[in-house]
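Structure, all two chains, one model.
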Amino acid sequence: MSRTTESIAPASTPVQRKPLISLDNRYIAPAFITCILLVGHLSFGILESYPKTLLAIVTSIALELVLGRIFLHKWLHPASAYISGISVGILVRSPAYWPYVVCAAISIMSKYVLRVKGRHIWNPSNFGISVMLFLAADTVASLSIQWGNYLLPMLVIWVLGSVIIARLHRFHITGIYVASFLAFAFLRSWITGSPWQSEVAPITGPMYQLFIFFMITDPKTTVRSRRGQCMVVFLVALLEMVLRLRQVVYAPFYALFIVGPAAMLVEIWLDSRRENSAKAVAA
Amino acid sequence: MTGNRIARVLLVIIFIGLIATPVVIKRISARRQIDRSAADAATSLARYGFHLQEVSHAAGINFVHQAPALDPKLEPIMPEVASMGASVSIVDFDGDGWPDIYVVNSAIGSKNALYRNMHDGTFKDVAPEMGIADVNQPGTGVSTGAVWGDYDNDGYEDLFLIKWGRPELYHNDHGHGFTRVSEQAGLPRWINANTAIWLDYDGDGLLDLFVGGYYAEDIDLWHLTTTRIMPDSFEYAKNGGRKYLFHNLGNGKFEEVSAKVGIDSHRWALAASAADLRGTGHPDLFVANDYGVSELYFNDGKQFHEVGKQTGIGFAPKSGMNAAFGDILNQGQYAVYVSNISEEGVLIQGNNLWMPKPGTSGDAIQYENLARDFGVELGGWSFGAQFGDLNNDGTLDLYLANGYISLDRNRSYWYDFSKVAGGNSSIIGDATNWPAFDGRSLSGYQNKRVWLNDGAGKFIDVAQAVGVADTYDGRAVALADLWNRGVLDVVVANQKGPVLVYKNTVSPDNAWIEFELEGTASNRSAIGAKVILYWNGQEQAQEVSGGTGFAAQNDRRLHFGMGKTPKIEKAVIRWPSGKVQTIDLPAPNQLHKIKEPA
């Protein structure tokens, strides 16, 4: 869910009118996720505790600054790490403190360790959270409950999130995923005989709000073409359905964990082939 | 190698190390557990100072709990909606000086049982002749618990029957039978409750009664008019049953005063317990709620003030199923143990051990959850738990029952449960939206926990080693010295399972002392009386309880272990009336019967 906010602008920038009130794009995602956190916590107390969330945020930012300085020789803007930390703080549910530190650290470090041709291929917090859910299942779970009893907060987050993600020209990713999820939910209901409401239920929860608005839309770990993005996110929803039919509780995280990097590798391979062809033609 | 390359290699090593961290922690924990696998009686006695042997059949107790069959509209998820009801309470109903056992049943037409202690190691069910067996008749709902208290101060413990249905009060006719007095007492027509406790909240010497509703009281679970009966949120539900505080008027009648005294909650209460947490002389009230935060009510003798958030316990919502107090560090202060759900790979709520923060007390008392630090955090789908010194070493141990629904061992409902639990209230609140159970288990066949307190802030689970190997769906736990031997035995009520009686054998080297209190100015049951025992330079506080744990009540007699060759200084009794009585140099290894001085 961490996103590199510097590159949040779309690859191809259409002609835009200057808005009356302008907010630097790299602050939009952090502001939005902070808003979700504050609304969720002040209304319903969603956090395990302030110290745990703070621990995840501090770990993320500190590591980003240190690793950026060492390996990129510059002080990186902390917005991306802030989103990673806050995501870990919200999504990781554990009575212990260490998972927040370890998960945040794994998330940030994955950006520097798991690189192919200069690009990191896993969404950092998706990687960290998936690893923790898989390897530390006895200590860690993920946020899987509804925030409060009311539709209004959920609608506000959906509308606000949609507006923001549309401004960032990535609404098609969210839209395709939601449409695919809903279609697959009805298909699952037909296959398993479960009430369709129970299949749709997960997407009404806050975990999905974070997943949809922050994780699958991360510019650095999604492919560049619009059609490719749509295809990838459809495949995420498809694999998620398969995993759900296998009763995998954290199906969306694992689906993105598998499909996301695979798509990135395909794109890197295609780029490389294109470069080689261009070089061959030039030669 | 360049500096950058060295840094990168180091980064990769640290990264791999971090990924391996959870695995390493898990292995270390597993290795520790191996050392505490099953052992024979002699070994567990030598190693841990006690051994528990399940003796229910030999003791003549062959009771198997039956779950309710609710409205057929709930059939697909019947195992879940009918997952509670098993309960056990200890009472000396006939005043013969030997603890008896009352267990309830939860199917329409099923019978409750009152096991009279025959003084020879056996028990005999006398509920039918006493008139408190056939209490689950059609149209009246079913039993989910029982608590005992002498509400009319006649020297005999009366019975309040907790039900999903018509709550019942039975007057104890001097140990010869029981008379139903529910209408005369002014009890409401219907409450769907799992918890109730006796307490004298206003110190008038008469026992009052708190009842915590679970399902809303306007729901007849056998004749549903709607299937929208489920919690409207997994962690923030407020559509549960209301709470009742019945003030004892002293003439056999009770007045419902909850709103008047400041108790107004529709959370889904599962467990309640009361103790004087601030040294005010008034019992404060702790309520553990399912699908939400726990509530703590400070009681000033007239009014209750909900201070959950202020004290730190009402912050993180979980699935509270137990409330038990224990002075686990021998400091004269109670910890509160609340059980929750932990299922590997799905939901790790962790149980709560609320410890008073150092330096806080009185109205400014603050609690912090130290369950992880003390090692009592993970107990599966935890239910009833009780503190008691099982090996008489001078520190309170903790017995935890667990396991939710044990059906098909190879198929789990967890995926479907987690799917719906994350849904909006409009989805989760309607029972028809829940996938069918279809014979699957949900946190079933779990190993119980017997956590041994080392006195220095750590508990270790020795259940298997000391003889607790059952995997029934445990609900209520009650502790009592069943055979007057100076040891705490354990009785466990299991949902759709047998009542288990674990007879305790304790190393004779460890000394003990017991107190049986009788109020005069205070309520005669002495509920709320606190005994602080001073020995070997330390102190331990215990309080007579009118109901504690989950759907359970321990024996009213207070049991203290003291370890080897104790130097006892005194026992100080703080009676609910406000009187303070000091007993110097009480003799060890005996029961002290104390009557409140005039």
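The longest strand of chain B covers residues 141-149.
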